Amino acid sequence: MGDDSRALAVMPGELATKARQLDPYPWFREMRAQGAVRYDDARGTYDAFHYDEVVELSVEYERFGKEGTSFLDGAWMSRDPPIHTDLRSMAENYFRPSYVQEHYGPAVERHVERLVDEAVARDGPFDFVEAVAKPLPILVIAEMLGVPSEKLDTFREWSTALIGAPTEPTEAAKQDVQERMLAAIDSLNDFFRDAIERREDEPKDDLITKFVQAESAYEHIERENTVACCGMLLVAGNVTTTAYMTSALWTFIEEGTIPELQGETVDLGDALEEVLRYRTPVMPQKRIAREDTELGGVEVPEGSLVTGWLSSANRDEAVFENPDEFDPTRSYDETPIPFGKGIHYCLGAPLANLEAQTLFTELLDRIDGATLATDEITPYFSPEIYGAAELPVTLRT
Ligand code: HEM
User: Fold this and answer.
1) What is the mean pLDDT of residues 133-147?
2) CB-ligand 1 contact for 25 (6 Å cutoff)
3) CA–CA dist 101, 81 (Å, integer)
4) How far away, in angstroms, is 346 Cα from ligand 1 center?
């Protein structure tokens, strides 16, 4: 188990207002102008804001490790090589773009069709988050893992508890979030320990069975790691993909992109990629310095927590022209990094993209237009996730 203060992402004081949660970008710009890296005493972390240093933090895994940065410490997301290598390779084959498309494409389409049918049948305004963006990722990953759909509400609760973060750096706030997080991890682990044992006697055509059958082939994998990995997969892609799909519709309405997408003067894949740069769903990534080192000209002692702000890197004016403009036709010299980079590059990126691509292909085909049914977007209040907590919309069919 990692040091508590590192496993919890604490809200930077500067982002702790509703207005800043909705628009953190002026603050990121200000911080980039002040320098590449700063130390925040209140949260006990170095913060990196420039693209180059955020990439350096991601790819230099021997200098900047992940061990101890999360409470889900059995899973590979928070481990370093060699165990990270084994755990990741156990799952990697099932998350490659071609595998995901071939094996899970039909399930994604089935869920999308039903959710879009229900959405277009609505007469008035409805919350796109609750109706579409929240259910889709959880339905898909639950089916992939082979867990029952009656438990979806519970899985969602666990997912939400696991990305919980204190919104202020007080001990009481940390304690509260930590207790809920640890309880969710216990429940998640109990659930998967049991499911894994049952697969040993009764194999099924699902990912849990594939992991159980593969684990003995890997030197560094113990049963508890497999348990933690299933839990991680169940929760890692929920809140993130929900935020992604919500930001996509929000941005397409706000920027008037829907007719261009329907007329195919703008490519949907390009527009979705630009949404991920413009409204990056996972704002920070955390690392711990494994040696005395340096980042962006600032000395970083061994053991220090370092936070790299992906959301700031993706708006870095040194890399992206007019970074605060949503431009789905832009071309890149350097690619945006909404899914991180290096050995911890998001395993679920092809799945998240398949879900978003399938959803918007279907939705844009079925509507004449869409409008926001509110003047005021409520942000997802979190130091980790950027997005709208609710998106009231009206669809014109
Ligand atoms: C738009 C949706 C998503 C976003 C923005 C996102 C973002 C990220 C980021 C930034 C990382 C790297 C963190 C770091 O380097 O510290 C990551 C890692 C990861 N993501 Fe995602 N993610 C998304 C969806 C998913 C989905 C759908 C799944 C699985 C079902 C998933 C599973 C993972 C896993 C397992 C890792 C750890 C990879 C490793 O450490 O080797 N993610 N994600």
Assistant:
1) 93
2) no
3) 29
4) 4
| Position 4 pLDDT exceeds 70 | no
Burial of 38 (0-12, 13-18, 19+ CB in 10 A): middle
- Inter-axis angle of helices 171-201 and 223-236, to 10 degrees? 120
SS3 (DSSP) at 325: coil
Which among 26, 32, 27, 25 is positioned nearest to 50, based on CA atoms? 32
Q: CB of 232 closer than 6 A to ligand 1?
A: yes
pLDDT digits (tens, 9 = 90+) for 297-312: 999 999 999 999 999 9
Residue 1 has a pLDDT of 37
Q: How far is CA 1 from the centre of its chain?
A: 22
Angle subtended by helix axes 223-236 and 152-162, to nearest 10: 90
Distance CA 136, CA 158 (A): 16
User: Would you say 344 and 64 are in contact if contact means Cβ atoms under 8 Å apart?
Assistant: no
Beta bridge partners of 64: 289
Q: Whose CA is nearest to atom 20 of ligand 1?
A: 346
Distance of CA 113 to the CA centre of its chain: 24
Cα 201 to ligand 1 centre (Å): 31
Domains of the chain: 4-383 (1.10.630.10)
Query: If you average pLDDT over residues 106-131, what whole number do you get?
Result: 97
Q: For 55-67, how does the pLDDT look when each residue is reduced to its tens digit (9 = 90+)?
A: 999 999 999 999 8
Nearest CA to ligand 1 atom 1: 241
